[in-house]
Amino acid sequence: MKPELLQHILESKLFITFCVIVVILLLRGFATLAIVRSGWAKADKRRRINTVHNLGNLLLVIGVIAVWITELREFALSIAAFSVAIVLALREVVQCLVGGLYQANMRSFTVGDWVKVGDQFGEVTDSDWLSTTLLEIDPHGLGNGYTGTTLYIPNNAFFTQPVKNLNFKRRYIEHSFSITRESGKVNPFEAKNFIAERLKEHCESFREVAERYCKLIENRMGVELAGPDAKVCITSNELGHDVITVTVFCPREEATNIEQLVTEDFYNFWFEKTKELEAKENDKS
After folding, report:
1. Helices 42-67 and 13-36: crossing angle, nearest 10°?
2. Is the alpha carbon torsion for 248, 249, 252, 257 positive or negative?
């Protein structure tokens, strides 16, 4: 072989690229063989072999790019104008891809979480680079709250709309409801004490679990919650009627039942007190 031809082959970037690939593959093979013959546990071996393969692939990419960097730069400059046109034409797709990367980096939610994107609320059933699929949930519904509607949200919505992870509401919620009565002879603050006692009885079965779940939410979110104790508040509306507002931290599926039980307790108390007052008035007359 002529020296000029040999020198040309040795200086060829194809030959250099071939040598880089062979060297990296040999190093990766030797490292893998050494790990296989080591005394580590099987799980550790698989983890280290996977790391070696990933590093080898990364080195292959870096090595090939380093060899062809000049040609790649010229190629990039030659298609710059074309690339700009493609980006403008596929702007929405690019935004969705960037939104998918942003969400994956932030880890704001995963499949199975309950999230609210803008005004849309649902359970994440699928998520890819372009869109996120939600099974819609009625934000005011109790129980499972599913509406049966499937929402397909493009990932660029993560840049333009707020994203709220409401997964902690999947099991327990802070349920509030009000009972309104015309102001009468019954003292509503007597009803407040009565309802507070009844709430303790209704919530006793899940109180310990509610306390643990409340602490779990506080630790994960770094906030302090009011706690699992039910609260009863007495106010009045613009018509002068008494409004009793009850707030209870309870399992989602129990919220409706507790509301009905407390409402029943309140009306039983109210009518009993009304009967007692009417009986006293009749005795006086």
Report:
1. 170
2. negative
Q: Who contacts 50 (Cβ-Cβ below 8 Å, separation ≥6)?
A: none
Does residue 190 sit in helix, strand or coil? helix
Residue positions counted in the chain: 285
Q: Which residue has the tokens 């519904």?
A: 141
pLDDT above 60 (res 81): yes
Strand partners, 115: 122, 165
pLDDT at res. 238: 84
Residue 143, SS3 per DSSP: coil
> Which residues have a Cβ under 8 Å from the Cβ of 178 and sit 6 or more positions away?
243, 244, 245, 246
Tokens read off for 43: 């799980």
Q: Is 68 helix (H, G, I), strand (E, B) or coil?
A: coil
Rounded Cα–Cα distance for residues 47 and 218 (Å): 34
Q: Is pLDDT above 60 for 5?
A: no
Reading the block at residue 187, the tokens are 């003292």
Question: Which pLDDT score is estimated for 108?
Answer: 77
Alpha-carbon span 124 to 115, nearest angstrom = 7
- Helices 69-78 and 42-67 cross at an angle (nearest 10°) of 70
The pLDDT mean for the chain works out to 79
